[in-house]
């Protein structure tokens, strides 16, 4: 399961992706044969109106949902070829997620939240906490490392979520509306941080957004409409 | 991930407390009611635990318990004595008597009349007085619990006068005997005194205590006694079993205590199940986020089971600890509580029931986690 074993040049490659929800008469196709390739070392933004299939597409790319038809390859690894258990391990090793609502564990401190991917990989608590404190310091959150999420502002919580997504050095960062729950100023700061820390020559960063104010951080913008890629190579403005 | 599971649990204090309360309440009901039931049933052989010298108890064929019923004619003693294999036999009276204390309070007491010459049947653990004093006319011994009930807070003292069925009785000693089911007060006297104290008909002999000759097969001698005399002869252990079985079969004790135990299981299961479900429901987005990140189902199952087992252990410790504490407190201050204790099979049985409830509740709640779509983290 070595993702780097077969590098096809793209970090993410999707072929003819279709996704249906429901059964029988209730069946509804949300993605209609999406083909897209995303290069490493860039911040790629996925934009489009609500309900156009952005979240479904990142769920398929992140291996959280399985496509009805088509194929997703991450760093040369066909996700369909992986068992559910191996897919979980693959996500744990290669993908970092930043959610719109942060989804931090309220009972844990910021640093403890950041350790989650490391703990799930079997790290010792002390080592994981050391790594978390170091990363939070890089993100300017050193003073808040021992606070619980409810003691932090939205922007600070999202920084913690970004640290959690980065801590295990994944090769793909998937961000779902990372600025949607934040005010404009916090949103800009979060995007600056993401651009600084998430974009790496050996890493792809895929950001789903509605927020046109953050388009300037994108190296590439992919527009979606009605379950299809409407403009696969729109350059960042 | 264990410490993360524990912090999640401790972080939700209301549900953490609710779960512990549910387990503790259930464990308390189950262990306490079971202990009461066992304690009460254990009092039914009462006297049998104190009289160890005979290896055969001979009685009327209709008698099932130490509290007797039908009595034997006086001639039974000689008939039993004549059975080959019997070394000795002695009479025992067992009845109930109305007792009036010096303050004119009226109580019902268990009256045991022991062999006039050998005093066979008198419990050995004597706290005050000499056994020889029992040979005096109207002399009685009383058990300690009965003494405390009649004269609460007063030091042990002999020479007190009581009225047993309108007859004067003098207290010459205090002893310690096993609690009895029929009465909280046990009075011991010579056989000849007992038949005077207790009203009755022609036949007054309740039991014959017999010892088989050394090297005899006790069961074979018992069968021989039955065959030759038409009386029932039981070994010591058989008579204990027969007495307990009779009370289990014919009284509502097991059913009434059992009902409360079942209620404890049901109430506990409902509280634990609902609270665990609420706990899991409230933490579902967090579990979904973990699944999205790549935390395996096995790890999540382990986390939930750890949470369940921990609250189970703490709640169980509280519940069973409270049972042990209340029983101990009761034994110290209430004479009637002396037969109530917490046997280890109840401790283990309660633990097994609690573990089963917690694991079942955990697995039912876990289903929601395991089927939870991790993609929900993108929608909420």
TrEMBL record, chain A:
Keywords: ATP-binding, Nucleotide-binding, Transport. Gene3D superfamilies: P-loop containing nucleotide triphosphate hydrolases (3.40.50.300). The keyword Transport applies. Transmembrane segments: none annotated. Residues 12-237 form the ABC transporter domain. PANTHER family: IMPORT ATP-BINDING PROTEIN, TRANSPORTER, PUTATIVE-RELATED. This is ABC transporter related. It comes from Candidatus Contendobacter odensis Run_B_J11.
Automatic annotation (TrEMBL), chain B:
The keyword Transmembrane helix applies. It comes from the Bacteria. Residues 259-370 form the ABC3 transporter permease C-terminal domain. One of its GO terms (cellular component) is plasma membrane. Residues 54-227 form the MacB-like periplasmic core domain. It holds the Pfam family MacB_PCD. InterPro entries: ABC-4/HrtB_transporter, ABC3_permease_C, MacB_PCD. It is a multi-pass membrane protein. The chain crosses the membrane at residues 257-280, 300-322, 342-366. Keywords: Cell membrane, Membrane, Transmembrane, Transmembrane helix, Transport. The keyword Transmembrane applies. It is found in: Cell membrane. PANTHER family: ABC TRANSPORTER, MEMBRANE PROTEIN, HEMIN TRANSPORT SYSTEM PERMEASE PROTEIN HRTB-RELATED. This is ABC transporter permease.
């Amino acid at each position: 399961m070595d993702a780097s074993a077969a590098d096809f040049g793209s970090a993410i490659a999707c072929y003819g992706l279709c996704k249906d929800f429901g059964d029988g008469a209730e069946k509804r196709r949300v993605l209609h044969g999406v083909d897209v390739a995303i290069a490493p070392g860039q911040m790629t933004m996925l934009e489009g109106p609500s309900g156009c299939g952005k979240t479904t597409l990142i769920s398929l790319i992140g291996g959280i949902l399985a496509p009805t038809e088509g194929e997703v390859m991450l760093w040369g690894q066909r996700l369909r070829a992986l068992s559910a258990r191996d897919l979980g391990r693959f996500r744990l090793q290669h993908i970092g997620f930043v959610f719109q609502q942060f989804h931090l564990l309220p009972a844990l401190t910021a640093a403890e939240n950041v350790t989650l991917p490391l703990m799930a990989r079997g790290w010792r608590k002390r080592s994981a906490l050391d790594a978390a404190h170091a990363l939070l310091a890089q993100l300017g959150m050193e003073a808040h490392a021992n606070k619980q999420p409810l003691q932090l502002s939205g922007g600070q919580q999202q920084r913690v979520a970004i640290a959690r997504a980065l801590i295990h050095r994944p090769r793909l960062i998937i961000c779902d509306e990372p600025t949607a729950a934040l005010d404009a100023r916090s949103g800009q700061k979060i995007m600056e941080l993401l651009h600084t820390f998430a974009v790496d020559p050996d890493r792809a960063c895929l950001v789903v957004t509605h927020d046109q104010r953050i388009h300037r951080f994108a190296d590439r913008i992919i527009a979606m409409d009605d379950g299809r890629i409407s403009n696969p190579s729109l350059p960042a403005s | 991930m264990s410490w993360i599971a524990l912090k999640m649990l401790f972080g939700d204090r209301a549900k953490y407390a609710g779960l512990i309360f549910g387990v503790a309440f259930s464990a308390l009901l189950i262990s306490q009611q079971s202990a009461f039931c066992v304690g009460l049933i254990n009092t039914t052989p009462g006297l049998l635990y104190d009289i160890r010298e005979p290896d055969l108890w001979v009685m009327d064929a209709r008698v099932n318990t130490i509290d007797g019923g039908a009595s034997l004619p006086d001639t039974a003693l000689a008939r039993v004595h004549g059975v080959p294999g019997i070394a000795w036999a002695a009479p025992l009276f067992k009845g109930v008597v109305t007792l009036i204390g010096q303050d004119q309070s009226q109580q019902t007491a268990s009256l045991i009349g022991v062999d006039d010459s050998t005093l066979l049947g008198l419990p050995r653990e004597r706290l005050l007085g000499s056994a020889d004093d029992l040979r005096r006319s109207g002399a009685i011994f009383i058990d300690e619990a009965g003494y405390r009930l009649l004269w609460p807070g007063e030091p042990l003292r002999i020479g007190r006068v009581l009225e047993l069925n309108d007859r004067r009785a003098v207290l010459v000693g205090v002893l310690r005997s096993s609690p009895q089911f029929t009465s909280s007060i046990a009075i011991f006297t010579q056989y000849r005194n007992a038949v005077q104290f207790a009203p009755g008909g022609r036949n007054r002999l309740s039991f014959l205590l017999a010892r088989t000759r050394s090297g005899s097969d006790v069961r074979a001698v018992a069968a021989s006694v039955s065959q030759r005399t038409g009386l029932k002869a039981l070994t010591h252990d058989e008579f204990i079993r027969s007495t307990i079985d009779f009370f289990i079969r014919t009284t509502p004790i097991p059913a009434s205590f059992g009902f409360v135990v079942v209620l404890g299981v049901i109430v506990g299961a409902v509280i634990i199940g609902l609270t665990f479900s609420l706990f899991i429901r409230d933490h579902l987005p967090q579990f979904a986020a973990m699944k999205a990140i790549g935390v395996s189902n096995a790890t999540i199952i382990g986390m939930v089971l750890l949470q369940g087992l921990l609250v189970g252990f703490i709640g169980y410790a509280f519940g069973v600890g409270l049972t042990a504490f209340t029983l101990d407190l009761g034994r110290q201050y209430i004479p009637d509580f002396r037969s109530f204790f917490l046997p280890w099979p109840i401790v283990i049985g309660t633990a097994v029931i609690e573990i089963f409830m917690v694991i079942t509740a955990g697995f039912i709640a876990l289903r929601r986690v395991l089927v939870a779509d991790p993609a929900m983290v993108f929608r909420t």
